[in-house]
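Q: Hi! First time asking for a complex rather than a single chain. Here are the components, and I think there are two in total. Is that enough to go on?
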Amino acid sequence: MKGTNIGEFEEIVLLTIASLMDEAYSVNIVDEIKRVTGRSTKLGVVHAVLNRLEEKGMISSELGEPTKERGGRRKRFFSVSNAGKKSLLKTREQRNQLWDSIPDIVFKGI
Amino acid sequence: MEQNPPKWLSRILQWYCRPEILEDLQGDLFEYYQRNLNRGKRMADLIYLVDIIKFCRIYTIRKPKLIGQMNFFSMFRNYFLTSVRSMSRSKLFTSINIVGLAISMSVGILMITYISEVLSFDTFHEKKDRIYRVLTNYQGVNNDEGFDLASTSIFIGNKLKDDYTGVENLVILRRNLSLDLTHGDHVISAQGLWATEEFFKVFSFDLISGDPVTALSEPNSIIITESVAKKMFKDQNPVGLTLEVAGQERYNFTNAKISGVVKDPPGNSHMDFEILGSFSTLEKYATGLEEEQHFYNSYNSVWMNYVYLVVTEGHEALTVQGHLDQIASEEGENYDRFAIKYELENIKDIMPGRDLSNQIGQSMEWEMIYIFVALTLVVIISAGFNYTNLSIARSLRRAREVGIRKIVGAGKWHVFGQFIFEAILISLIALVIAYGVFTLIKPEFIDLILDQQSSIQLDFQWVHLVYFVVFAVLVGFTAGFLPSLVLSKLKAISVLKDAGKFKLLRGVNLRRVLIIVQFTLSMGFIIAATISYRQYEYALNFDLGFKTDNILNVQLKGEYDELLMNKYAQLPEVQQISRSGMVPSTGEVWGETVKYKDPFDSVDIHINNVDKAYLEVHDFEFLAGGTFPFDIKKDEEPQFMIINEHLLNRFGFSNPNDAIGESLKLSDGGNSLKIVGVVKDFQHLKITDELQSFAFIQDDYLRVLNLQVNTSDLVGLMNKLETIWREVDSVHPFEAKFYNDQIQEAYQEYNAYYKVIGFLAFLTISIAALGLLGMAVFTTETRLKEISIRKVMGASERNLVLLLSRGFLLMMVVSAVIAIPITYYLFDSVVLAGVANRITFGAVELFLGVILIFILGAITIGWQTFKAARANPADLLRNE
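A: Yes, that's all I need. Here is the structure of the assembled complex.
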């Protein structure tokens, strides 16, 4: 079913939004992803993902105050919705289960 | 200082992006732009541009505004109502607009009907896409350019019939089949074409009875058209009958069997015929006689015949063109005195088509159509200006309406659509009136402009309705475009907050320019009309150098000139009679070449065959010698000639008397003729051409009787002449015209020019005057208060009239300054440049019409301004 599963990049974006708390708007998200993962992401890509996530109901957005740094335009702040939170948790749970089922021996020597 | 990204780039984003996310994107890009600035402004701009392009994705692009459009249609009724109300509120302006548009659109309708009819030519042929005509370019050693001919040789037709690929069928035609058909006591004279038996395989003319395959295969068989059959045989089926025929005895063609009846060729066929004669008649004749085969077999007999062929399906015309080029180069080697080239022309390109000599029927060149269209456009644009002008000027009155609409939620394009709709509505109303005007000018147009032999009828067809409506919509759109744009751009707040502040005279310069253009056109046309009329008059009254008054030219149609002459001579009204081959100065030209002593010096001259009396009847002035001493009998060799000064000088005689008694030799192997007289130069060509070497030749081939008549009862005389004619020639109709009338007919084109240009002048002037009236009314109306106050302050009526008219008069002066030199140049250096005898035009021709327009304009403006100036200021100011 659409919306219950999220892709890898979508997950990163969601996590970033969650970690940025009140400062999660497009440019910040791009910068944060780059800082944490080292991936230089294109603004367009992030935008498309944000758009998709919003469509899926994973995130919600609201406009802030006009700022000088944006030439008098408002920022659109994103926050993770309940649905988003749920699917983040679900993803994490699935991963944990998988991690738990891996015998320690597999990673020996790394 | 903060730097901003280029505005135009941002605008692209604005244009395509959805409004919901526009701000977001703009903000993001702005931040990035600021960051990129440290890499240089140019780099930042570039990245900005690339980003904008990259952001153009499905989720960012705005959806087409379906809902907005729906809104427009649901508002239709409202727009219609408002339009009608606004029209009825200002009846004067509405009628000015409608009348102006209607006048010009009537010409537009005429053009549409005319062009669609011309373009429909020859479309009824089933194989029209594959039917081609062989054109010939004949270049003799003497002429540089060669002639482009619609005709070709029988030779090439027969050659292509041999096994050349790509030719499915081919028909050879020959013109000038003229026959008098006799059946019982019925005699009918009919014109037509000789045609080979494949005629019906190529063309789609309907054969009503007879066998299309064999009807034209037997020698001496003819096919007649339905109307000829009706005239001769009533309802009886004539197929199989044998008739006595006259007119083609030279081909031993005296009895003709009717092998078929064909429907009359439709009006949109470029070839017309009443009879078709079988080509095998000619073939049979030619094969019998060695010395007569020239016209039939020779490669360069390209003047009388036409070859139409059908290209085989799946083949290109190029294949056949290749064969023609090959034949031309192979055969060309045998001849060095001329070169012939061939070209193929699709049947649909014949009418309208190229400028070709020896057309088989009517023809119409593309240039002519372009000129018509251009002139029509000028008139329509002029009328469109009126609409534009008045609507922009009056946009103030609608400004409040626009303001309210915008506040209630109309977008810019809604308002634009509304006013365009209104313009189209007006133009559709104008269309109805225009059609009425069109029916009035149609017969005049057909008579005047089109050739007498043209079959164009300008009949209504249902498809025209579509064209007309499309045309009206286009006109409405064009005329309404600018005012609609102006109105749609109005800002609701500024209009409603303080209407007084709203710029009243916006677009004033544009309006002035439009009025100036209108008047420039009007003045140009009226000057052109004056000059053309004067040139026409000049041509009619030109002193030709001989007398043409009271000379009645009777066209002879058989070998009975002496008999008829003797009978006519007995009439008391006929004072003198002479005979001639043709009628000079009317555009008809007969040619010969003559040599004097030097056998290599041959001179092209123009000639006329005349009898002894001719020179006296026409009162030619002799410089030396006199007319022929006697007339020759039938079949006698000519002996004498009379030359003009030009020819005299050409052969270097210093004194006219020296030439008397000398002999000139006619063409190659022709007779030597003794010069018995020298006449003063006279204008034997149309006055557009310079006179040439000319000679009167004593010859028995005489086609015209020149009767010098003196009568007060012209009708009675004509009846007498016709009665006598009937006794002598019962087959052909009596045809007589006064010489002066024939000259007038020869200058028919001038007549047509000045009438057309005059008509256009009338149209543009009426339209411009209407527009001027509208503007004058508007200006005075809006300035009524100003005028009243001025008047109260002591301005005299004269002052006020001047004040109000000054601007308009100035515009007319500017128009005159533009129009006069341009028209002068156009006529002096282009139109009349090639005319040998032309008027010299000066102030009268140039200024007469312009002054007329000034007076008309002054009356129009003066009427309104005077009315305004006379108004009682108390009435106007009281209500303030």
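A: The two ends of chain B are 54 Å apart (CA to CA). Let me know if you'd like any chain examined more closely.
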